[in-house]
Structure formats: structure tokens, C-alpha cells
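Researcher: Checking consistency across runs. Here is ATP-grasp domain-containing protein again:
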Amino acid sequence: MRVLVTSSRNTFALDLIRKLGSVGHTVFASDTYDGAVGSHSRFLAGHLTTPSPRFETDAFIAAVSAYVTEHDIDLIIPTFEEVFHLAARATDLPAGTRLYAGRFSDLARLHDKASFQRLAQDAGVPIPETVVVTSPDELRTAIDHFPRYFARAAFSRGGVGLLTNTGPLAGKVPIEDCVPTPEQPWLVQPFVDGPMVCTYSVVVAGRVQAHTTYKAAEQWAHSTAIAFVAVDSTDTLRYTQQLVDALDPGFTGQISFDFVDHGTDAAPDYKIIECNPRPTNGVILLDADDVSKAIQGELAAPVVAIPGTQRQITLAVIADAFTEPLSHLPKTLHDLLTVRDVGAGWWDDAAMLWSPATIVHGAKISHGDRKEALAALGDDIVWNGEPIAGMSETDAAALEAVHASRA
């Protein structure tokens, strides 16, 4: 295949590029700035710098389309929220080129955390009690309902901007900074004890082809995972297939879920929290050949990551250790000796040397506000539920239906 991987700034995008390139596919990459790590992998045949899909949608679609035509690309694989802009404008992409993603209507239902709660309930997947709020007063009333609470915007990501009174993030976000609206609602749930468990799946024609379930062995600032360990996939694979079955028949693409496990190691008890209808770091725990075969729909049964498999983003683990050295440094030293880095064995070190460019990119978007830099790293490629320029009347109607399903 000739493949274009978009939003190449992410570690998991770089991993996907390496895996597809290493098994013989011709891979290209794109992002909105030239310093994206995945755009400098030795496994690439070329890379493109595009306008922002969020702020310059027409120009983004035109740039991608021209590049796809020029390089005779068969398949576009989105890796972040540009997937929504590409899906909403799929008919504007060159004929004969496949977009590896579901229909916009399904993606929107999965991404909007409020509508996703309804979807999970209908699919028979356990969820915590959930209150959707659309004003600051409703937010205050809802958190008073739970002795221990957990709240976040319906459109949020990366563990950033969480309002809670429990755990290491308690009080980090003032309630005055949280402003739910009918267009941008928030979800309030009881704080569920237990570790976060994440999944990543490749789905073709409505069937899961590849699946990983993993815990975050380390997190950056108690939010984004930077070290990963695979765990048993029995329950999460079943729940993932139930959710896929609740979508339009024939769903194809990458999909990821977050669960909280408040059971035991011997008897997990999962409640689903949210969905990212795109890849996450779970892809790192799969073999290259399995990823390639899964994307092409060649597997007769789902392949799953072997429990106990571990990987880490070593540079991030080291940096995080020095934010809280007394608590983090001993574990970090152990992990440096025992856990493989995500880039180990690829002989592709030049790509990660571009990591500072991503931090600079986030800092520019956040206008130099250091505490907002993490949230801003993807600000030019996210989608927060707004209408997309040039979207069809059918997709616009689907978006309205998603908003209505929050009730």
C-alpha cells in the first residue's frame, strides 16, 4: 500500500509509520508544522506540511488532496482529531483514495463524551452514573450530588482540564475556570476508585482485527500516559465489539477507549469513561506485521497484545521524574533498566530528536503560557463539536442529532 499518516507529531503516529514502513508499505506523513517527529522517520518516502484542519479546513483538504494525487496514495490514516475534518469532507478527497475512518456521524457520537455515554448504555457496556451539565450553576449542583466527583468537558482530551476533589489532581482546576454551555457541556460522575485502563483497536467492516489493553505505568503530570504495560484483554475486547456493533454496519477505522477498573487483578470490574475514535499509544504494544495485517483486514480472529508487554517514552519518563523526584525517581531508575523504549530496535533516533519542536509548537499556540502548553499541543488539529466548513447537509444533520442525544 501507499499510505499517508496524518498528524505525525504524536509518538503513536511515529510508531505506526515505523511499523507500516518496516513491512514494505510506502509511507508518507503530514502535519501542520515541519518539526513533527513522525515527519522525520527514516521509514518515510516523504512528508507534507499542511494548513490547520481546524482553522483552515478548505486549505487543509486541498493540500492533502493534491499530495495524495501527486504521490498516488491509496490510503489516508488519520491519527488525531483531523479525522473529523477528513471524514466530513471525504467526498472532496481524490477518487479511489480510501480514508481509514468511520463515517462522520459515528465518529461524532463516539467523540462527544455526553452522547457517548448514551451509546455505551445502549450497547450494554457498564458506565458510571453520569450527569450532563450545560451551565456553571448546573455544574455546582451536580458536584454537590457526589461526595467524591470527577468532571470534564464533553470535548476534552489527554487528561487535561479535569475538575475533581479526589486523587492527585484534586483542586488543580478551579471551578471558576469551568464554564459549561449548551454547545460545550460538561460531564459529572462519581469518582471511581481504581486504575485507568486504556484500549486501542483496529476495526475492519465492523469486526475487531487487533486489540490492546494497557495500563499507564507512568503518567506525565498525572494525566497523559508515558509508560505502558499490556494487561488481559478478555473483557475489553468484548466491550469494544459490543460498541462497534452499536455503530453503523461496516465501521472501519481505529478506535480507543478509557475504562476505570475498580475490581481486582483476578477479577477486573470495568466501567467505561470515554472514547477516542483514533489511535492511541496502545498501537506501540502490537507487532508490526499484526498491525499491517489488521489494517488490511487479513486476520481471521483478533490479535491481542501479550499481557506483560511493556514500553515507555524514555525521555518523558526521565523528565517527569524530576518534577517529583522523591516519589518518582526510584521507579524511574528501575524502569530505565528494565523497560524498552518505544524507539528501541528501530534505528530511527533522528525522528525523536525533533521532539523539542513539538514543545515549541505547543508553546506558540498557548502564547507562552507554560501551564497551557500541554493542552495546546494539539489545538490546531482538534475538533470540539462545531460545524465543519464544507460539511454536507447529511453530516450537519447528524451533528445536530448527536447534540440532541445528550439529553
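Researcher: Does this match what you'd expect to see?
Model: One thing to look at in this run: The chain has three domains: 2-102, 129-191, 196-365.
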